[in-house]
């Protein structure tokens, strides 16, 4: 069509309908794009660690591994152990060794989790991807939780908030998902409520090299991003 013919077409009833439909489609596409980026938005601590140089990540990873090996040496010597690490060292391990060698510890939908410690609050964020027959849907799950050890060997996780990008996420639904995931190894998990927040309480059964079963005695964090975990071990009983 010539320019004049197009102009005349848009003056007709059909042409006006065509324009309106086009505007609606453009608006819907823009809304979908905005919703996608809003759902994919990562929290500030995640973006800051993403900017960390590869060499620095490797250094933090090595520091974490060194401290983990020191804790293992304590287990062999005395049966008690302690592990003091920072959130940056833990993120270094998650971005280097855990990402390449321990992929099986994460569900396939969760990619590259990161952690930030602020006093008694722990932030965890991870991109979540779901592949469907027609598209790959990506979002960022951001959870704020409190972890404590009410008695030796028992861990309690209180879910303070949860978001998908900038959108609130149902914490009760998240608690159910976590309960199902943590229940797969056979752990006995209880779901309750504390101050209006969902809470999961469980006794983790952690065995190292089929020889030692770990018991967590305390879990402490501070405002500097430091975490101190202490515990003991017992020999695994042979059947």
Describe this protein's structure:
The chain has helices at 3-11, 13-40, 44-50, 54-78, 87-95, 97-101, 171-183; strands at residues 80-86, 114-118, 121-131, 136-151, 154-164, 167-168, 189-194, 197-202, 206-208, 212-221, 226-235. With 239 residues, it is an alpha+beta fold. It is built from seven helices and eleven strands. It has two domains: 3-36; 42-235, no CATH class. The N and C termini lie far apart (84 Å).
Number of helices: 7
Order of helices and strands: HHHHEHHEEEEEHEEEEE
The beta-strand count equals 11
Q: What is the CA-atom radius of gyration, in angstroms? A: 25 Å
Q: Which class best fits the helix and strand makeup? A: alpha+beta
Distance between the termini: 84 Å
Nearest-integer average pLDDT: 82
The residue fraction in helices comes out at 40-55%
Question: What is the approximate shape?
Answer: elongated
- Most strands sheet: 7 strands, antiparallel
Question: What are the low-pLDDT stretches, counting only 5+ consecutive residues below 50?
Answer: none
- Kindly estimate the percentage of residues that lie in beta strands according to DSSP: 35-45%
Give the total of domains.
2
Q: In terms of topology, how is this protein built?
A:
Elements: H1 3-11, H2 13-40, H3 44-50, H4 54-78, E1 80-86, H5 87-95, H6 97-101, E2 114-118, E3 121-131, E4 136-151, E5 154-164, E6 167-168, H7 171-183, E7 189-194, E8 197-202, E9 206-208, E10 212-221, E11 226-235
Antiparallel strand pairs: 1-11, 2-3, 3-4, 4-5, 5-6, 5-8, 7-8, 9-10, 10-11
């Amino acid at each position: 069509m010539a320019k004049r013919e197009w102009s005349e077409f848009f003056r007709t009833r059909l042409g006006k309908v065509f324009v309106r439909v086009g505007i609606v489609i453009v608006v819907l596409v823009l809304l979908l794009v905005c919703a996608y980026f809003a759902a994919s938005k990562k929290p500030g601590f995640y973006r800051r660690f993403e900017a960390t140089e590869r060499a620095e990540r490797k250094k933090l990873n090595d520091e974490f591994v060194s401290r983990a090996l020191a804790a293992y040496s304590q287990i062999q010597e005395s049966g008690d152990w302690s592990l003091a690490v920072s959130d940056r060292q833990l993120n270094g391990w998650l971005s280097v060794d855990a990402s390449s060698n321990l992929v099986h510890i994460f569900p396939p939908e969760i990619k590259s989790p990161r952690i930030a410690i602020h006093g008694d609050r722990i932030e965890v964020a991870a991109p979540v991807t779901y592949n469907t027959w027609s598209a790959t849907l990506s979002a960022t799950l951001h959870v704020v939780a409190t972890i404590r050890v009410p008695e030796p060997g028992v861990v309690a996780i209180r879910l303070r908030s949860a978001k998908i990008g900038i959108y609130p996420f149902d914490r009760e639904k998240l608690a159910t998902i976590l309960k199902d995931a943590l229940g797969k190894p056979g752990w006995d998990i209880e779901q309750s409520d504390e101050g209006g927040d969902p809470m999961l309480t469980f006794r983790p059964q952690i065995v190292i090299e089929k020889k030692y079963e770990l018991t967590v005695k305390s879990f402490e964090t501070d405002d500097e991003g430091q975490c101190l975990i202490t515990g003991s071990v017992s020999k695994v009983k042979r059947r």
